[in-house]
Each structure stands twice: as structure tokens, then as C-alpha cells.
Amino acid sequence: MADKVEFELVSPEKLLVSQPVTMVVVPGAEGFLGVLPGHAPMIVTVKPGVIDIYANDMTTITQRIFVAGGFCEITGGRVTVLAEEASDLAALKSLDRAGLEKDLADLNEDLADAKTETERHLIEQKLGIVLAKLNAQGETLH
Fold first, then answer.
1. Fewer CB within 10 Å: C terminus or N terminus of the chain?
2. Element (H, E) at 121
3. CA triplet 86, 38, 47: central angle to 5 degrees?
């Protein structure tokens, strides 16, 4: 199956996806990373965002999954994403946008009140997840 790469997405709760795919695009900390069969081995940090799965060809996204961060291990024939939190994009769209916007405002207030660098860093991580969720709510399956 040289024209496919085995893709696995694992959250703390369960294995969410395990299937051969033509390509997967992962939101890496350094930018989006498209992985095809034969990709150079690496481990990257995953930032909050949407993973695009191309199961049959490289022109049609077949599934989109929101991840709140994690790690991605790539070998020539396998991509494994260990996500802190993951949900199908359709489930994310059902979240209350007003609630997310309130969370964003609250976190911005908390950030302004942060006393230590550690506290600031944790709040910034939470802010990144809420912002990514708000951005992903506006995205659609191509």
C-alpha cells in the first residue's frame, strides 16, 4: 500500500481514527504539515486547530477533526497524533459560540491578572484552544 500512509489519531479517552489515507494535514507548531507516504521521520508539536484527512485522493477532504494540541510522530508509512483533546468538526460546530466568546473574554481578564509566568503560560494555552475552536466553527468540509 505504497500510495497510502497509516493514520492514527488518539485522544486520552480512545483511538478516534485508524485508517490508511492518501494524505493528512496536521496543524504543527511551526505551520501546517502535509504528510504523504514516504515522509521523512520526525516528531512535531501539534497546535490547536483542525486536522484534514484525505482518504481517497489529494483533492477531497473526507474528514476534519479539531485537536486542542498534542504531538505527532511521523515515519515513512505511519502518522500518529496523540491529541490532548479531539472532536469531529461537526460536533465542534454545535458548541455555543456565545459561550466560547465569554470564555475568551474571561481568559483575557485572567491573563491581565496573571501574577507569574507559569500562570500566564497556562492561560495563554487555554486562550489558544478557545481561539482555535472559534476559528474552526467557521470552517467547512471542502
1. N
2. helix 117-137
3. 25
Which residues does 108 contact at the CB level (< 8 Å), separation at least 6? 127
Query: Tens place of pLDDT for every residue, the chain, 142 residues?
Result: 468 999 999 999 899 999 999 999 999 999 999 999 999 999 999 999 999 999 988 888 899 999 999 999 999 899 999 999 998 877 777 777 788 888 888 888 888 888 899 988 888 888 888 888 888 877 644 3
Residue 19's CATH number: 2.60.15.10
Domain count, the chain: 2
In which domain, by residue range, is 46 found?
A: 5-89
Domain boundary among 70, 89, 108: 89
User: For residue 121, how many other CB atoms are within 10 A of its CB?
Assistant: 10
pTM above 0.70, yes or no: yes
Residue 10: beta bridge partners? 15, 82
